[in-house]
Amino acid sequence: MTSVVVVGDVMVDVVVRVVAPFAHASDTPSSITTAPGGAAANQAVWMARAGAQPMLVAAVGRDAFGDAARSTLSAEGVDVALMGIADAPTGVVVALVEPDGQRSMLTDRGANLTLRPQGVERAAEALRDGAHLHVSGYSLFDEPSRAAGLRAIELARESGATFSVDGCSAGPLAALGAERFLGWTQGARFLFCNVEECEVLAGPGDPAERARTLTSGAEEVVVTLGAAGVVVVLEDGTVERVGALSTQASDTTGAGDAFSGTYLARRLSGATARDALELGALAAARCVSEPGARAWR
């Protein structure tokens, strides 16, 4: 079983499904649910479902949300022994889901901002023993947690471990700057991004051609295209594509995490890029068919 050290965020998703036209400064009928979330935590869950053995390096608060997050992750097969407990509230994101399934997010990272290099040092032994490192871009975006994300990559390089990184969100990625992000993540085995993040990193244009330029810094670049599917450019220049599976989208929250977690777990276990793409697309389709980032099992 492939071991993966995952560094990044744990969040609580407050999902607001708008069921009528939005009424500014007034009431809008909505359906509101609470679900576990966070890009790194979601990816770790889908990795476990795909057969990997993930260890999550993150931080939650000393509160009911934090207790629930640790319990839920552990029940999914994610090793939470490396997770810290902070004197700060567990992170919360309010996801506004429109009738077509698209979502916008309002984020308070909370305890995630307390993650420090000392927290990732505890993963050093696992990396020396051959674990793969996956770093969520969110850990690099904000100054308080950035040193932890950078230290994790440094530890991987020092131990000879492979590592991967996820672009996570176009807005914060643009604010950080492509040059800094690509410089910090040079030598990644896998780079994951959606089409908007790909444009931030490599400029506008055909996603496959833009991804090809990014293989100068990462061996394998995977770009999710929403309803258009996924494209991956391999180290030798080979391009693989799959279309998105036809499904009624209930909520697109976590679809990219479901895909990348599944794809990474399968590739690390020896699957071909094509097989990993197809399994990742299936996971994403199952994810969007129900509300929440981890609803399907």
Task: Please provide a written account of the structure.
This protein is of the alpha/beta class and 297 residues long. It has one domain: UDP-N-acetylmuramoyl-L-alanine:D-glutamate ligase (3-Layer(aba) Sandwich), CATH 3.40.1190. Helix content is 38%, strand content 26%. It is built from twelve helices and 14 strands. The protein has helices spanning 39-49, 64-75, 117-121, 124-128, 138-141, 143-159, 170-176, 178-184, 195-202, 207-214, 255-268, 273-288, and strands spanning 3-7, 11-18, 30-37, 53-57, 59-61, 84-86, 91-97, 103-108, 132-136, 163-166, 188-194, 218-224, 230-233, 239-242. Helix 1 crosses helix 11 (255-268).
Strand and helix map with partners:
Layout: E1 3-7, E2 11-18, E3 30-37, H1 39-49, E4 53-57, E5 59-61, H2 64-75, E6 84-86, E7 91-97, E8 103-108, H3 117-121, H4 124-128, E9 132-136, H5 138-141, H6 143-159, E10 163-166, H7 170-176, H8 178-184, E11 188-194, H9 195-202, H10 207-214, E12 218-224, E13 230-233, E14 239-242, H11 255-268, H12 273-288
Parallel strand pairs: 1-4, 1-9, 2-7, 5-6, 9-10, 10-11, 11-12
Antiparallel strand pairs: 2-3, 7-8, 12-13, 13-14
